[in-house]
Specification:
Blueprint (H helix, E strand, L loop, with lengths): L1 H4 L3 H11 L2 H9 L3 H24 L9 H27 L4 H12 L14 H26 L23 H7 L1 H30 L3 H13 L15 H11 L25 H26 L7 H19 L9 H8 L4 H11 L12 H19 L9 H34 L4 H12 L5 H4 L12 H16 L1 H7 L8
Helix pairs in contact: 2-4, 2-5, 3-4, 3-7, 4-5, 5-6, 5-7, 6-7, 6-20, 7-9, 7-10, 9-10, 9-11, 12-13, 13-14, 13-15, 16-17, 17-18, 18-20
Keywords: Cell membrane, Ion transport, Membrane, Signal, Transmembrane, Transmembrane helix, Transport
Subcellular location: Cell membrane
Membrane topology: Multi-pass membrane protein
Length: 504
């Protein structure tokens, strides 16, 4: 693993991407879809040969010397690798352009989950490839969070770190983190890959027991762990497992609320116990409070008229609200089979606003979820509460503890800066979409879907679902750029443009 980590990161990822093409080739061969099998098999072989030759040519050079160069390679991966993923996909589908295939792969790799294709248009191997690319993108973010973003205090770590974004966390610890980035990458991958694979396998087995076919269960398992929301049948609501499958997926979505649910590799920057983790507690509060509010809204509205209530319908509406809240808070975007019951029960006329709000909040730092992230929201909450306390008691002293003071002061400031950058990104990208001919509502929905990496929003948040395949080439490329920007975050892009980070 260490020797592999010393390869150029982009080449390493390209090689792994090429090798992973063998899986859909085997599925296509088993189903006697020989064209798909040839497309993925030849794509994998050509990719492996090219990456091997380039690696040999670069063997005498030392790579991955600094965390900043790994960050640049991470950005390049989200831009370049989708083109590699798109080659066999474009060849297999045959009836689409390479641009459509590229945008589809950007959507999958950034775990956004938007699609340009109806489920019945793609074969089983092609559906598996979409889910597999999303799964690989989720794994990359798991590893990159601890190996690349944490040493540079990016990706949400800047809220609790003492250093500035793009700089060391502390004089000693950060220098050790950045001393040998390749070694840190190898160590992190060796620790997290078995966990990621194990959780995916466990979810796959549970969905099999619930009644899903093996391939569909695998696709949903991959999509859940990666929070990509990719499905071959328009989500778990259409799967044979039904509500049982939804409940199983619901339990595994909690891994996107806090990194402490699956790893303690970054606990030096956060709380050490899950029950004390502010992200997890805030996520639970949102997931419970929103459905209960919608549930009780019905009773309050019906109190004056004395209407009789159906308890079974109410419980199904409550479950649908719970699932949808967690699904869109983690930016997965799976739709519950009881979502229509939620809307009917609560009388909710504008569900898109709530779903977009959940996606903007996002999941936990250093997880596969997108959005602003719960830790940044928590920092803004602490700062707001403290300011209101000072209005009432100007000479009061805030809560004790170094971490609490850091989050409330420096952390809240950085979180506010990020939130403003996020808001300006929404405005700029929405304007760009509007210039391509989209109306305001669809432009806003697509912008938020891209920046939060919650692609299913374009299907459920707008009054009329946005058909990506009907958009022009310019709009598709803007959407691809928004997805990459949302995945890596604008703050990381600014850090890459800072000259000081390259002087090391």
């Amino acid at each position: 693993m260490t020797s592999l980590a010393r390869m150029p990161l982009l080449l390493l990822l390209a090689g792994l991407a090429s090798a992973s093409m063998i899986a859909p080739a085997a599925v296509a061969l088993a189903e006697e879809s020989f064209h798909d099998a040839r497309s993925f098999f030849y794509g994998g072989i050509v990719g492996l040969v090219l990456t091997t030759l380039i690696t040999i040519a670069q063997a005498t050079r030392r790579h991955n010397r600094t965390a900043s160069r790994q960050l640049l390679a991470l950005l390049a991966a989200f831009v370049v690798l989708p083109a590699v993923f798109a080659v066999p996909f474009h060849e297999a589908v045959r009836t689409t352009s390479f641009l459509n295939a590229y945008v589809e792969m950007v959507s999958s790799f950034t775990t956004t989950g938007s699609t340009l294709f109806a489920p019945d248009r793609l074969s089983a191997a092609e559906h598996l490839w979409r889910a597999q690319v999303g799964w690989l993108g989720g794994l990359l973010m798991w590893v990159a969070a601890a190996a690349i973003l944490a040493p540079l205090t990016l990706g949400g770590f800047e809220v609790t770190a003492s250093g500035e974004p793009g700089q060391s966390v502390a004089a000693g610890s950060a220098r050790r983190d950045m001393f040998d980035p390749s070694q840190r990458l190898a160590t992190t991958a060796s620790r997290l890959v078995p966990v990621y694979v194990g959780l995916t396998g466990a979810l796959w087995l549970l969905l099999l027991i619930a009644g899903d076919p093996p391939l569909l269960a695998l696709i949903h398992a991959m999509s859940t762990l990666a929070t990509s929301g990719i499905s071959a049948v328009a989500g778990p609501s259409q799967a044979p497992s039904g509500m049982a499958g939804e409940m199983i997926i619901f339990c595994f979505l909690f891994f996107a609320l806090s990194r402490l649910t699956f790893s303690g590799d970054t606990r030096g920057l956060t709380r050490s116990r899950l029950r004390d983790d502010p992200e997890f507690r805030m996520g639970l509060l949102i997931v419970l409070a929103l459905p209960l509010t919608l549930f009780l809204r019905h009773w309050i509205a019906a109190f004056d008229v004395g209407a009789e209530q159906n308890l079974g319908a109410g419980l199904r509406a409550l479950w649908g609200g719970l699932f949808m809240s967690l699904s869109f808070l983690t930016t997965t975007g799976f739709e519950s089979g009881d979502w229509s019951a939620v809307r009917f029960w609560s009388g909710l006329e504008t569900p898109g606003v709530i779903l977009m709000g959940l996606a903007i909040i996002g999941g936990g730092v250093a997880t596969t979820a997108g959005g602003v992230k719960l830790l940044r929201i928590y920092a803004l909450y602490l700062a707001g509460v403290r300011e209101m306390e000072k209005l009432v008691h100007p000479h009061s002293v805030g809560r004790s503890g170094v971490m609490a003071r850091r989050i409330r002061r420096q952390g809240a400031f950085v979180a506010w800066v990020f939130f403003m950058m996020f808001a300006m990104s929404i405005a700029a990208i929405s304007l760009a979409f509007a210039l391509t001919g989209l109306d305001f509502e669809n432009a806003m929905v697509m912008t938020i879907a891209g920046l939060t990496n919650c692609g299913p929003l374009i299907r459920v948040a707008a009054e009329q679902p946005v058909i990506l395949n009907e958009l022009g080439a310019t709009a598709k490329m803007i959407y691809a750029g928004a997805m990459v920007l949302g995945r890596l975050e604008l703050l990381a892009i600014f850090v890459l443009l800072t000259p000081g980070i390259w002087r090391d």
